[in-house]
Amino acid sequence: MTDRVLVAYTSRIAATDEIAEIIGTELAGCGLSVTVLSVAAADTLHGFGAVIMGDAATRDAHRFVRRHKVSLKHTPMWLFHRGTPPVPNDVTRMVRRLGAIGPVSFGGAAPDWDRAKAWARYLADQLTVLHRGFASN
């Protein structure tokens, strides 16, 4: 397991890229190595120990999942979006098929930046446990 994290986004809904950047910044601040890219620019998942993807309801996101389906079956994955529930059916199917966690929503008309930062810190804790394992004293 590597502590490199890919935060991939597609911005059909404005601000998904900004949320991805906030998540990436928070994760990096917690000591993780983070790459933030659009899903179209994410050519490979080689070397990434986790994927966090924003706006999974778009065609580009579905192409990303098809292109990387073998790697994604063995890579922890979390989903987020800027919209409000309910989650589209195709995203629900994607979550089940990949064993992904989420999606977490970050608001409608005005993104909830504080919630995005808090979620990223929560993910950093989860990723640290995945990467280093749990040690008990």
How would you describe this structure to a colleague?
InterPro entries: Flavoprotein-like_sf. It comes from Lentzea rhizosphaerae. This is Flavodoxin domain-containing protein. The structure is a single chain. It is built from 5 helices and 5 strands, in the order E-H-E-E-H-H-E-H-E-H. It has 137 residues and is α/β, with parallel strands linked by helices. Strand 4, helix 4 and strand 5 form a beta-alpha-beta unit. 39% of the residues are buried.
Round the Cα radius of gyration to an integer and report it: 14 Å
Shape type = globular
Largest sheet: 5 strands, parallel
Number of strands: 5
Record keyword descriptors for this entry:
alpha/beta; globular; 5 helices; 137 residues
Give the SSE layout:
Layout: E1 4-9, H1 16-29, E2 33-38, E3 50-54, H2 59-67, H3 69-72, E4 77-81, H4 89-98, E5 101-105, H5 113-132
Parallel strand pairs: 1-2, 1-3, 3-4, 4-5
Helix pairs in contact: 1-5
Brief digest:
Helices cover 42% and strands 20% of the residues. The protein has 137 residues and is α/β, with parallel strands linked by helices.
